[in-house]
Amino acid sequence: MFRVLLIVVMCSFAGAETAMAETEGVVPSPRTITVALDGSGEFSSIQEAVDSAGKGDTVLIKAGVYPQDLTVHSKEKIKIIGVGIGQVVLQGRGQMVGVLHVGKWPYGATDIEISGLTINEHGGHALGLFNGNRIVLRQLHVKGMVFSQQVQDVRIEDCIIGGSETTGAHFSDSHATLVGNFIHDNDYGINVTGESSVRFERNVITRSLFEAVVIGDQAAAVLVNNTLVKNGGGATFLGASRIEAMGNIVSFNKVGFLIAPSSQIRIGYNLLFNGEADYMRVGSPNRPAPELRAKSDIFVDPRFVDAERDDFRLPSDTTLLNVGGFRYLGALPPHRPVSAQ
Description:
Blueprint: H1 2-24, E1 32-35, H2 46-52, E2 58-61, E3 64-66, E4 70-72, E5 75-82, E6 88-90, E7 100-102, E8 109-130, E9 133-149, E10 152-157, E11 160-162, E12 167-172, E13 175-179, E14 182-184, E15 188-193, E16 197-201, E17 204-206, E18 211-215, E19 220-224, E20 227-229, E21 233-237, E22 242-246, E23 249-251, E24 255-259, E25 264-268, E26 271-273, E27 277-281, E28 287-288, E29 321-323, E30 326-328
Parallel strand pairs: 1-2, 2-5, 3-6, 4-7, 5-8, 6-8, 7-8, 8-9, 9-10, 9-11, 9-12, 10-13, 11-14, 12-15, 13-16, 14-17, 15-18, 16-19, 17-20, 18-21, 19-22, 20-23, 21-24, 22-25, 23-26, 24-27
Antiparallel strand pairs: 27-28, 29-30
């Protein structure tokens, strides 16, 4: 009898251990957590929905104007998706500088993707990125500044950023890539400082009161296939910055490139067509520096389709094709007549 009882007890322990192992090995399935102001979702508060999200989850925000601030920190691999730029507006409550923060000292955030929202500003800032890693911002309308400090692998893609009284996007000690954005009506378009490393590709930056792009300190930047047009200045390279600028259209600004003697530059195959000078050296005062021109540069009117209405596409008969290995110069492909599409 004792031996039978012992065998039963041992089998019970084995079964319990197997059940525990199976439970520990279960990975929860990713969830979609819905936010709706009318109560039709799991939450009406975006913050509460994000706080409840686990790794792999998606927070889906239905249409509405949300008088809410949002801070995303201590989170990994979550998506925050609005149903559309024109349909979801993050208004803020006016209780903090900025409306949306990703990362928070001393916490961070990793593998965060945010898309399909309009974000209004408060205190001059709209969206702040702090101490994070692998942050993707896609198809957002940011009305105010995007500020990034000590963030790695930021990607900002197909966004509209405008209306800041300071800078459209500022990167401090951060690594970022900006692709296909429309950045408009800021005091400065982009400012890169510290030891940042930023790549700009196929962006349109227009109507900045001062420069479209300023790279300073010990920052490194690559500018490829951008259109910098109708700004106070095109691009300024200061301090010990390290720059590569290729295949850009820098036109209808007062100055094209303003370059400090201490910066390191590699420039070529840019189209420049500016009011006061295409190249200038930083000094007191700044002076024209035609000797900085690259042999491969082009100095002609790009003949945009309709620059007055922000249509900066090249005309269908443009000659700015297949230049220096680029399919076309600038950010936007040539216009094709309807019959050719």
